[in-house]
């Protein structure tokens, strides 16, 4: 059971992640391309949530794995890898600097890790 301390710690880590991504955009020139990482990490958990709900339309019958769940995991993995690869691609092409890339990747991983942790700590458990 997650309590108030868990919420405070997760919100603090989320704030640090957003701060790192915003600072990677602001410190190394007025270049706002690293903010695209936030969009990919915020959208990353959505395919899992949508596809897992589509896979089990009936709450009384629990099946193993289905194509919907696998497709949701694939899309989530694609968005997470895109969130890490996009700053590396921008740094390689010279659009952003290397320290901005590092700050953007670390901040994005903190944001995504917080979203996953929040889902893990606060998921509903239904017992029939």
Automatic annotation (TrEMBL):
This is Vacuolar protein sorting 55. GO terms for cellular component: Vps55/Vps68 complex. It is a multi-pass membrane protein. InterPro entries: Vps55/LEPROT (IPR007262). It is found in: Membrane. Keywords: Membrane, Transmembrane, Transmembrane helix. The chain crosses the membrane at residues 7-26, 71-90, 96-122. Pfam families: Vps55. The keyword Phosphoprotein does not apply. The lineage of its organism: Eukaryota, Fungi, Dikarya, Ascomycota, Pezizomycotina. Belongs to the OB-RGRP/VPS55 family. GO terms for biological process: late endosome to vacuole transport via multivesicular body sorting pathway. It comes from the Eukaryota.
């Amino acid at each position: 059971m997650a309590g108030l301390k868990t919420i405070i710690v997760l919100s603090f880590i989320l704030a640090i992640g957003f701060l790192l991504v915003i600072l990677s955009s602001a410190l190394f020139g007025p270049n706002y391309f690293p903010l695209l990482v936030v969009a990919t990490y915020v959208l990353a958990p959505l395919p899992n949530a949508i596809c897992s709900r589509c896979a089990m339309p009936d709450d009384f019958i629990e099946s193993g794995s289905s194509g919907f769940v696998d497709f949701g995991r694939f899309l989530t993995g694609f968005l997470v890898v895109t969130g890490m690869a996009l700053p590396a691609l921008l740094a390689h092409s010279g659009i952003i600097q290397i320290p901005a890339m590092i700050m953007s990747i670390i901040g994005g991983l903190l944001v995504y890790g917080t979203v996953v942790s929040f889902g893990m700590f606060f998921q509903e458990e239904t017992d029939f």
